[in-house]
Amino acid sequence: MSWENLGTFIAMGGYGGYVWGSFGVTAACALIEILALGARRRRLLRQRAE
Amino acid sequence: MSGPGLLASVCAVIERELRIALRRRSDVMTSLIFFVIVVSLFPLGVGADPALLRTLGPGVVWVAALLACMLALARLFAADHADGTLEQLSLAPQPLMLLVLAKTTAHWLTTGLPLVVVAPLLGLQFDLGSEPLLVLIASLLLGTPTLSLIGAIGAALTLGLRGGGALLALLILPLYIPVLIFGAGAVEAVAAGLGAGAHLSLLAALFLGTLAFAPWATALALRISME
Amino acid sequence: MIAIRWFKYSSPQTFYPLAGRLTTWFGALAALLAVTGLYIGFFVAPTDFQQGEAYRIIFIHVPAAWMSMFLYLVMAMWAAIGLAWNTRLSSMMALAIAPTGAMMTFIALWTGALWGKPMWGTWWVWDARLTSELILLFLYVGFMFLHAAIDDPRRADRAAAVIAIVGAINVPIIYFSVKWWNTLHQGASVSLTRSPSMASTMLAGMLIMSLAFWMYSIAVILKRVRCVILERERNADWLREPGATA
C-alpha cells in the first residue's frame, strides 16, 4: 500500500476525519488511562509517606 | 418438635405480604398510576397519529410496565430490612431461597398482576386490535413474573444503599431487555399478522430459567447485604 | 508441588512485585505489536473496493469489541472465584479489570459510530452487535457503580460479584434476543465486520492489533491492581518494609 504523499495519507480518501477521529480518540483514551494510573499510584505513595 | 412445613411457611409469608399491601393500598396503587401516566405521556410526546400509535403501542405499554415493576421493587425488602424482619427470615429453618420466592410472588401479585389487568385498557388507547390485546395480556402475564424475579436480585444487592433507586435501575434494566424484546415483539408480531407462538415460548423459557436461578441469587445477595 | 508454586502468588503481598515486573513486559509487547499492526494496517493492507479508506477503522473497532467481551468474562470469572473461595486478590482483579473493559466498550461504540456514518449515513445503527455493545457498557458501569456505592470493601466485592455473574449469564441471552429483534425490524442486516472474505493482509492486521489490545489490557490491569492493593492493604505489615512499594 503506497501513499503518494503525506497529504493523501492524512486525507484517507476523504474519510480522514472518521479514520483519524477513531485512531485519535483511541490513542487519547489509552494515554489518559496510563497517565491516570500513574497519578493514582503517585498519590497513594505520597499518602503512605505521610 | 416440627415447625411449619415448607408449603405452610411459604403461604404464611405470602399471606403476610398481601395483608401489609392491603393496609398500604397507596403503595400498590402508586406503581399502577405511574404505569398509566407513563403510557399517556407517549402520545403527548410523539403526536396522535393513529397509525404511529398503533405501531408504538406494544413497545410503549411494555416499557411502561417494566418501569412500573422496577419502581415497586424498592419496597420488596426495604421495610423488612429496616425493622429486622429480614434478619429473622434469614435465620429461619426454611431455606431463604424459598422465603424469597414467597416474597417475590406476593410482590408480583400486588404489582405485576394489576398491570396485566389494566394493560388492555391502555392498549385500546393505542387502537390495538382484539388479537394483539389478547397477546398483550398473555405476554405480560408471562413476562411480569420474570421481571419481579430478576428485580428481586437487584433489590437485594442495593439494600440500604444511598442512590438506591437509580442504582437499582442501572443494574436491572439491561437484564430486563430480553423480556422486553420478546414481550413487545409478541404483540407486534400478531399485529403484523404473524404468529406470536415463538415469542411466547421464549418468554415462558425465560420465566422458567429465571425461576430456577433468581431466588437462589437473591438469597445469596441478601446474605451479602446483611452481613 | 506445582500447586504450591501457583498459590504462592494468590496473596496480595507476593503478587504485588510480580505484577510490577509483568506490567513492563506486557507494555513493551503491546507497543511492539501495535506498531506492527498499525504498519500493516496503513502501509500493507490495500484500499477496500467498496469502503475506500474508511474500512481501516476496523483495525481498532474489532479488537476493541473483542476485548470488551473477553474482559467482561474474565472479570466475571475472577469475581466468581473471589466470591466462592473468599480470596481478596481475585476480587481486586475483577475490580481492576472493569474500567479497562468499559473503556474498550466505549472505543468499540465510538469507532462503530465513526465507521457507520460514512458507510450508512447515520451516527448510530441499531445493528445487533453495536446494540449488544451498548448493553455491555451498561453492565460494566453497573458493576463499577454498585461497587462504588458500598462502603465496606468486602461487601462491595461480593455484591458486585453477584451482579457480574448474573450479567455474564445474561450476555448470551441478551445477544440472542437483540439479534432476534434486529432481524425482525431490519430487512437487510447491516454488518460492521466484513464478510464473506477479507484480504489476508487485512485479517493479519486485525489479529495483530487484537493481540496488541490484549497485551495492553493486561499491562494496564496489572498496573491498576497494584494501585488497588496499595489502597486496600494500607495497614499491612509487608507494606511497611523499605522498598516494598517498588
User: What about the largest sheet of chain C?
Assistant: none
Task: Give the helix proportion of chain B (percent range).
Answer: over 70%
Count of strand segments of chain B: 0
CATH class of chain C: Mainly Alpha
Succession of helices and strands of chain C: HHHHHHH
In total, the number of domains of chain C comes to 1
Low-confidence stretches of chain B: none
- Report the CATH topology name of chain C: Four Helix Bundle (Hemerythrin (Met), subunit A)
How helical, in percent, are the residues of chain C?
over 70%
**Count of extended strands of chain C:** 0
Number of domains as seen in the coordinates of chain B? 1
On the 0-100 scale, what is the average pLDDT of chain C?
89
Please state the overall shape of chain C, judged from the principal axes of the Cα atoms: globular
Distance between the termini of chain C: 29 Å
The mean pLDDT of chain B is: 92
- What's the story with the biggest beta sheet of chain B? none
Give the overall shape of chain B.
Answer: elongated
Characterization of this structure:
The complex is a heterotrimer of chains A (50), B (227) and C (246). Chain A is mainly alpha-helical and 50 residues long. Chain A has one domain (6-49). Chain A contains 2 helices and no strands. Chain A has helices at residues 6-11, 16-49. Chain B is mainly α. Chain B has one domain (6-226). Chain B has 9 helices and no strands. In chain B, helix 2 (25-46) packs parallel to helix 6 and helix 7 packs parallel to helix 9 (197-226). Chain B is elongated and about 55 Å long. Chain B starts with 5 loop residues before the first helix and ends with a helix. The model of chain B has no long low-confidence stretch (mean pLDDT 92). Chain C has a single domain (22-232), classed as Four Helix Bundle (Hemerythrin (Met), subunit A). Helices cover 76% and strands 0% of the residues of chain C. Chain C starts with a helix and ends in a 14-residue tail after the last helix.
Top keywords for this entry?
heterotrimer, A: 50 residues, mainly alpha, rod-shaped, B: 227 residues, 86% helix, elongated
Topology:
The complex is a heterotrimer of chains A (50), B (227) and C (246).
Chain A: H1 6-11, H2 16-49
Chain B: H1 6-23, H2 25-46, H3 50-83, H4 85-91, H5 96-110, H6 112-125, H7 130-157, H8 164-191, H9 197-226
Chain C: H1 2-7, H2 12-44, H3 58-85, H4 88-120, H5 128-149, H6 153-185, H7 200-232
Helix pairs in contact in C: 2-7, 3-4, 3-6, 3-7, 4-5, 4-6, 4-7, 5-6
